[in-house]
Amino acid sequence: MAAVNQDVVEKFLDSNPAFAKEYYDSHFRAQVISNMLSTSKNTNVDTTNYHNLSSTEESEMVFDMVRDLQENLQMEKAMFNLMRHLCFVMRADRMSLFMYRQRNGTAELATRIFNVSKDATLEDCLVPPDSEIVYPLDTGIVGHVASVKKMVNVPDVTQVGKPSKERPTSFFIIIPLVGAELKPVLKGSILKPDCQPLDVTGWTIKNVLSMPIVNKKEEIVGVATFYNRKDGKPFDEMDETLMESLTQFLGWSVLNPDTYEKMNKLENRKDIFQDMVLYHVKCRKDEIQNILNTREVYGKEPDECDEEELEAILVKTLIDSEQSEIFEFHFCDFEHSEMDLVKCGISMYYELGVVDKFHIPREALVRFVYSLSKGYRRITYHNWRHGFNVGQTMFTLLMTGDLKRYYTDLEAMAMLTAGLCHDIDHRGTNNLYQMKSGNPLAKLHGSSILERHHLEFGKTLLRDDALNIYQNLNRRQHELVIHLMDIAIIATDLALYFKTLLGCQAMFQKIVDQSKTYESWDDWTKYMMLETTRKEIVMAMMMTACDLSAIAKPWEIQSKVALSVAAEFWEQGDLERTVLEQQPIPMMDRNKAADLPKLQCGFIDFVCAFVYKEFSRFHVEITPMLERLLNNRKEWNALKEEHEAKLAMLEEAKKAKEEAASANSVAQPASGGAPASQSKTCVLS
């Protein structure tokens, strides 16, 4: 009987791979996996109860690693663990990950996690930015893989650079120095076409299998490289197939940290920009003294005063509601300064009865309304005055128009806040211009671009503790007010209103019709208070009525405001003509300014009339708005007819002049003047 030695066993196993795999799975796989994944070298693991791993179970292990990537904030650690597992599955001695990037316009590869083995630690393998190995794409095997985006298998590195019938190669292998010799690599790439030891342990590279990692767009992301198969043989086609499938998981692990890092940077930028916005918009300590003059009265700052002391100042500082006429539909802001409007805004919260009921801190209320006024840009029409007027009309519809009967105090507070916030940080151009000009807002918000921006701006202010008038609401109350603000502010998008014009009008009209079927007003009120959807429909129509309310002001107010609106439209038209090189629509073309009365009549007929007619039918208290709208329609129509009469006169004069010229051209030959052909030529010129 022949003696059995190591060589005989190895030959038998090589000749019988199926038996070798079965034996390995039964006796060694569980222990090897345990040793490879354990973080402590001294940990003893009982493997007697482990069962054989099927291919499905092995795949689940890899997916567990991927899930760990998604759930663990330490992305590099999860990626490192996955690389250790891949190294084991591929039977490779070591593995490295090289990341692709563009720096100063030059494509290059840099080490991310380097020299991973089963006994390695993350600290040893994670390459910090100041010690990374960087080299261009046209250098070495890894650079070649990144360039051609194809796998490269080098069975014998001693043959690299020498021609081969099977795998002709014309490049050197890049062997970065490791351990204590890492720093010299920073001065340049190291070319080692031989098999000299690379570190103090005597480790050398014998064979290499390198695979590109690409994203969905087939763009190079990185390169995964395995070194030295454990059995000393070259990597074969089975290894290539296995690597091709397993590298997908590594690709996910690479893209996840990068995405996470980018999200972190974006989040940091957002926080920085938010701080910048708040710095310029937030009511400063010196500014708040314009309303809460605690330094003068008490010799201290507002945050050092109690609520009673602040209330005592506000009683004296705020403008009397009757004197300011904030309860009136004909309210005119022309007579008030911007600071007066801030004070009137604060007064409206008091008149709603929500300051004490919801424990709104006086200082926060003052700072919030003051900051709103600063958040509106100093533009022609969509400025703080417009923002306040919309909030004041909402307040008047609730109080004077008696629509508050359907809403709780909490809901009314949200509606007033939405009115005041609804156009904050408006740019003086509409949504269509944001899209045409490629404004970042258009890329951020798919629809209702500016409205969503106004909403987010208002929420940003409310998230600041010093400005948060909702800070003492419970969670349910807070969710409700934010929900109502969402609906109310988005409802001011007239383009959205036009898209659903018939639907909106039909729903609102149905509610108005239904109200007329109730004999008891109290019964109708009780019914409406419980109908959340109907209340939201009415609220949305209220926001439309508020946003358009300038059209329902007395003529002396409406005529001036209309010119401001038109002026802002013309400014956008100028931008469209100069910046976008497009012809503006008539409404925004200052060359057609004389058509303003005609445009106003059309605006009243097709947009405004329905809103105010139905609200007047719904609540008779709102009738003054309809009456002024109809009066303004008469005024604009008179101007339109006057303009049309002038145009008709000009047309008649032009026609008469042409007829006279024609008659003269015929009469000249009869009087012995120039020949007819010469006369005709003179007239045409």
Automatic annotation (TrEMBL):
Hydrolase in keyword set: yes
Cofactor: a divalent metal cation
Pfam families cross-referenced by the UniProt entry: GAF, PDEase_I
Gene Ontology molecular function: 3',5'-cyclic-nucleotide phosphodiesterase activity; metal ion binding
SMART domains found in the cross-reference section: GAF (SM00065), HDc (SM00471)
Enzyme Commission (EC) number: 3.1.4.-
InterPro entries, per database record: GAF, GAF-like_dom_sf, HD/PDEase_dom, PDEase, PDEase_catalytic_dom, PDEase_catalytic_dom_sf, PDEase_CS
Annotated PDEase domain residues: 306-643
Entry binding sites for AMP: 382-386, 423, 547, 600
Cofactor binding note: Binds 2 divalent metal cations per subunit. Site 1 may preferentially bind zinc ions, while site 2 has a preference for magnesium and/or manganese ions.
Disordered: region residues: 658-685
GO biological process: signal transduction
Keywords for the protein's UniProt record, in alphabetical order: cGMP, Hydrolase, Metal-binding
Biased composition (Polar residues): 676-685
Active-site residues, record numbering mapped to chain: 382
Residues the record lists as binding Zn(2+) 1: 386, 422-423, 547
Keyword Transferase: no
Leading EC class: hydrolase
Family, similarity comment: Belongs to the cyclic nucleotide phosphodiesterase family.
Name of this chain's protein: Phosphodiesterase
Biological source species: Astyanax mexicanus
